[in-house]
Automatic annotation (TrEMBL):
NCBIfam families: cbbA. GO terms for molecular function: aldehyde-lyase activity; zinc ion binding. InterPro entries: Aldolase_TIM, Class_II_FBP_aldolase, FBA_II. Zn(2+) 1 binds at residues 82, 176, 204. This is Ketose-bisphosphate aldolase. Its cofactor is Zn(2+). Keywords: Metal-binding, Zinc. It comes from Paenibacillus foliorum.
């Protein structure tokens, strides 16, 4: 069933689990992610980001995500990831998304608050949840000009109070697009942040978080943990292996079977590590 972010993430933050926000790019990863959630009886978040929407415009991707969510036996939140402005959030909401993230992390605190509040007011008037970021989770790829700034607890408190958002993304040591689980989380900073706010915290760039730290994170006020790269690697590497084994293969219908199974396996593994089994 389709559900908002707030409806699932509040409970996760209050309990010893966190819900993965999986980046999806089309049918080939939407279906395995939802299958994984159904297998373990977990709520799940499927998220479309800018690269996904460049590959497949919202008018095509949104109906796939929404159909999968509505026909699922578990709660599925359909979420916009790293929305770049008010208009991209409005577009997602008009296409039926139940949650949007606005990323004003590159702006000054004042400008970030102003735009985030505008989006939160619009989204809430339409029954949609809002996540926003303060501090900035950078990227491993230096060609992506996004700053990497750890979140300041005092700023997080002001940001949450002034914007009325439902969940706040914080920067506590992760970096987007890590291909190994080598991130180092600053749990002391995380504690100082959660002492100041009551809404759920969100961790981005979590493909790089070691399993033992994922297990630790879910026991904090973190309610959502974003995973993208780990799924793309599972799909891409499995496909490469198949093509190396059979260089003459060209039929996508058969070629996609193993990569989809690999995505399902990783999604299931992350759901279990994050304590989501049976939480639907
Ligand atoms: O917003 C999406 C996530 O932060 C995914 O990050 O690709 O490093 O797992 P990741
Ligand atoms: Zn992110």
């Amino acid at each position: 069933m389709l559900i908002t972010l707030k409806e699932i993430v509040d409970r996760a933050a209050d309990s010893d689990y966190a819900i993965p926000g999986f980046n999806v790019y089309g049918y080939e990863d939407i279906i395995p992610v939802i299958r994984a959630a159904e297998e373990v009886g977990a709520p799940v978040i499927i998220a479309a980001n800018l690269p996904a929407l460049k590959h497949m415009p919202l008018a095509f991707l949104a109906p796939q995500m929404l159909t999968a969510a509505r026909s699922s036996s578990v709660p599925v939140c359909v979420h916009l990831d790293h929305g770049k402005d008010l208009q991209s959030c409005i577009d997602a909401i008009k296409h039926g998304f139940s949650s949007v993230m606005y990323d004003g992390s590159q702006l000054s605190l004042e400008d970030n608050i102003r735009t985030t509040k505008e989006i939160a007011d619009y989204a809430h008037a339409h029954g949609v949840s809002v996540e926003a970021e303060i501090g900035s989770v950078g990227y491993t790829d230096p060609s992506i000009a996004m700053k990497h700034i750890l979140s300041n607890p005092e700023e997080v408190e002001i940001f949450v109070r002034e914007t009325g958002i439902d969940a706040v993304a914080v920067s506590v040591g992760t970096v987007h697009r890590m291909e190994t689980q080598g991130a180092s989380i600053d749990f002391e900073l995380l504690q100082r942040i959660q002492d100041r706010v009551t809404i759920p915290l969100v961790i981005h760039g979590s493909s790089g978080v070691p399993d033992h730290d994922l297990e630790k994170l879910v026991k904090t006020r973190v309610g959502k943990i974003n995973i993208g790269t780990a799924l793309r690697m599972a799909f891409g590497y499995t496909m490469r292996g198949e093509m190396e084994q059979n260089p003459k293969a060209f039929d996508r219908v058969s070629l996609f079977q193993e990569p989809m199974a690999a995505v399902e396996a990783i999604a299931k593994q992350k759901l279990i590590i994050m304590g989501c089994r049976g939480r639907a």
